[in-house]
Specification:
The complex is a heterodimer of chains A (about 100) and B (about 475). Chain A has about 100 residues and is mainly α. Chain A is built from five helices and no strands. Chain A folds into two domains: about 1-30; about 35-105. Chain A has helices at about 1-10, 10-30, 35-45, 50-60, 70-104. Chain A is flat, with a radius of gyration of 19 Å. The model of chain A has no long low-confidence stretch (mean pLDDT about 85). Chain B is an alpha/beta fold. Chain B has two domains: about 100-295, no CATH class; about 310-480, TPP-binding domain (Rossmann fold, 3-Layer(aba) Sandwich). Chain B has helices at about 15-40, 45-65, 75-100, 105-125, 135-165, 175-195, 205-220, 230-250, 255-280, 285-290, 310-320, 330-335, 340-350, 370-375, 385-390, 410-415, 465-480, and strands at about 5-10, 10-15, 325-330, 355-360, 385, 400-405, 435-440, 460-465. In chain B, the strands form two sheets. A six-stranded parallel beta sheet of chain B has the order 5-4-3-6-7-8. Residues about 290-300 of chain B have low confidence and may be disordered. Classes of the chains: A mainly alpha (about 100), B alpha/beta (about 475). Chains A and B meet through helix 1, helix 2, helix 3, helix 4 and helix 5 of A and helix 1, helix 2, helix 3, helix 4 and helix 5 of B.
Chain lengths: ~100, ~475
């Protein structure tokens, strides 16, 4: 129990961010027309690829002088996260491009 | 960049470190603005580019400015490895995204979601040896990152396989209990890891066991879910991936990851609930009461006969109608018939017929999927109507043409309280004066429920591939 309180205190800013972001996320999304559900889901999906930063930090501190399981898995983590980010944003753009064509 | 510019709580902070945090703040703001713009049709594309720019900024500054606890930057050798991995991922991701057909979009999103979940799980797995076992909070976020990331990964892969037709629905009443058992095992291993007091090396076996059980749980969790519930599951898995990224963000105390992840987690959850509302089902009902392949008890065996209509009768009926409503469904999407459909609507409009499209909120395999497909075929916005705005007009509609849709026009949702889709809002096609249904065969729909509409006295059926049927219909009308 005490440890959890210490943890809360150590990360209080982050926990505040989380609590407020939940409402922010809900507020930002709640009035979206159903036309945009699929692109929105796809765009949000690309943002969740922010784990890519974790991958970079991870491999950044892995010993690169020899080939280890850590290094290989770390590289895969970056490749997977990049797929998520790049693929997600490109696919979303492709979908939205079609809507834009209509407007003219 | 390593110049010390201040001191806080006895810790020096450098110019580079400050700039890095500043760029994370900017990235987070770009994510929020991006999501906001994404939820309006006019600004959606710009929003996507904003979010992507935020991500790009965060990646570049992390590469240049990140320092470990000892103040060391990323060694050059590692930078090259990272750049190579980023390059490989970008090229593959880009090519896949450009090649994918619009009809296959749901499985593509599901696949990308799986890769994001896998990345979170891997990061948590590899950071576990560095976890401070005396700090229960930090062990907990690592475990949560691993568990949630793995579930999102294996669950999304199953969803991908199902949508792509590679994996069938497997349903048995036992699965509910197996899933609860697996979840308990996950909790038990997690508690053991946190309380055993052993070092991470000693607990290596437990963490891999936890990984394995979580992966299996992800598979078992999505396996029995099918039919119209699939989009809900994808959205739910999407929000899980966001939460996993947040947990990994805690491992590094990285604000961009924490905020980006939780935004997606919250947005994904809200989207999931919106979709559940569209089907009048609770989330718990979707997860536990999966109706996928499990035939419902209240299905009547045979309600009557299906009556076919000939191509020329159909073309005459359509040409001499005043008002036609097209109800597109997933069958239209798989047959790639959106262009042929638009052709038909143009030719009918040319004859003075008022042609409109009725879009059910969960038409296709993802909400809004149908709008994307029809937009691809150049169908103008103002011809697309949402279910609620077109339903009152149904009794005055001469012909409703149902193309490859099934559950979204099934009147059982209103008339039969025992039906698995009871209470789901539907497009009231059965109230129209005439109904033409285009169907591939006499089988049941994706959700496996018999549809009374097909046996209605006003209904006539055109069997065949939607695209061929539509093309034949167009040439038939032209030759009238």
């Amino acid at each position: 129990m005490e440890q959890i309180l210490v943890y809360f205190f150590t990360y209080k800013e982050a926990i505040f961010i989380i609590a407020l972001s939940v409402f922010l996320g809900i507020e930002v999304i709640s009035h979206v027309p159903s036309v945009l559900h699929t692109p929105l889901m796809s765009g949000a999906n690309a943002i969740s690829g922010v784990i890519i930063i974790g991958g970079i930090i991870l491999v950044g501190h892995t010993d690169a002088s020899k080939l280890s399981l850590e290094l290989i898995l770390g590289i895969f983590a970056i490749i997977f996260a990049t797929l998520n980010v790049v693929g997600g944003f490109v696919v979303t753009d492709r979908m939205l491009e079609m809507f834009k064509k209509k407007k003219k | 960049m390593d110049q010390v510019i201040g001191n806080l709580y006895g810790i020096d902070f450098t110019l580079g470190g400050t700039l890095l945090e500043l760029s994370y703040l900017l990235a987070a703001l770009f994510f929020v603005i991006g999501l906001k713009l994404l939820s309006h049709p006019e600004t959606a594309r710009k929003g996507n580019i904003y979010a992507a720019s935020g991500m790009f900024l965060a990646i570049i500054t992390t590469l240049l400015l990140h320092k470990n606890a000892q103040g060391g930057g990323i060694p050059l050798a590692n930078i090259w490895i990272i750049l190579a991995a980023l390059g490989v991922g970008s090229v593959i991701g880009w090519i896949m995204a450009l090649r994918i057909k619009m009809t296959a979009m749901p499985q593509m999103v599901s696949f990308y979601n799986a890769t994001g979940g896998a990345a979170s799980a891997l990061v948590a797995l590899l950071e576990f040896p560095n976890a401070d076992m005396n700090n229960l909070g930090s062990v907990l976020v690592t475990i949560l990152g691993l568990v949630i990331g793995s579930i999102a990964f294996s669950g999304s892969m199953v969803a991908y396989g199902k949508l792509d037709g590679k994996v069938g629905d497997i349903f048995s009443g036992m699965m509910k209990y197996v899933n609860i058992f697996l979840l308990l095992v996950v909790v038990a291993i997690s508690v053991f890891i946190m309380t055993s007091g052993q070092t991470p090396e000693q607990l290596n076996w437990a963490i891999y066991l936890l990984l394995a059980v979580s992966l299996i749980y992800g598979i078992m969790f999505v396996m029995p879910i099918g039919g119209a519930d699939m989009p809900v599951v994808i959205s739910l898995l999407n929000s899980l991936t966001g939460i996993a990224a947040t947990m990994a963000g805690f491992i590094y105390n990285n604000q961009a990851m924490i905020l980006g992840g939780i935004l997606v987690g919250a947005a994904g959850t809200i989207l999931t609930i919106l979709m559940c509302n569209a089907m009048n089902r609770s989330l718990l009902n979707v997860i536990i009461g999966a109706f996928g392949g499990g035939g419902a008890s209240s299905n009547k065996d045979q309600i009557g006969d299906m009556k076919e209509i000939t191509m020329s009768d159909a073309s005459i009926l359509l040409s001499y109608s005043k008002s036609v409503v097209i109800v597109p469904g997933y069958g239209l999407a798989v047959a790639q018939a959106q262009h042929a459909c638009h052709e038909l609507d143009v030719i009918l409009s040319g004859k003075g017929v008022n042609v409109r499209y009725a879009i059910h909120p969960v038409a296709g395999r993802m909400p809004g999927h149908m709008n994307v497909l029809l937009a691809e075929a150049d169908v103008p916005y103002n011809q697309l109507f949402e279910m609620d705005s077109i339903n009152p007009d149904m009794p005055n509609t001469d012909v409703v043409m149902v193309i490859g849709a099934n559950d979204v026009v099934n009147p059982a949702a209103i008339t039969d309280p025992g039906s698995p889709i009871a209470g789901m809002p539907i497009i009231n096609a059965h109230l129209a004066k005439n109904i033409i249904v285009m169907k591939r065969g006499r089988g049941k729909g994706y959700a496996g429920i018999e549809n009374e509409l097909f046996f209605d006295a006003k209904t006539r059926l055109l069997f065949g591939d939607a695209k061929n049927t539509l093309q034949n219909l167009v040439s038939e009308i032209k030759s009238l």
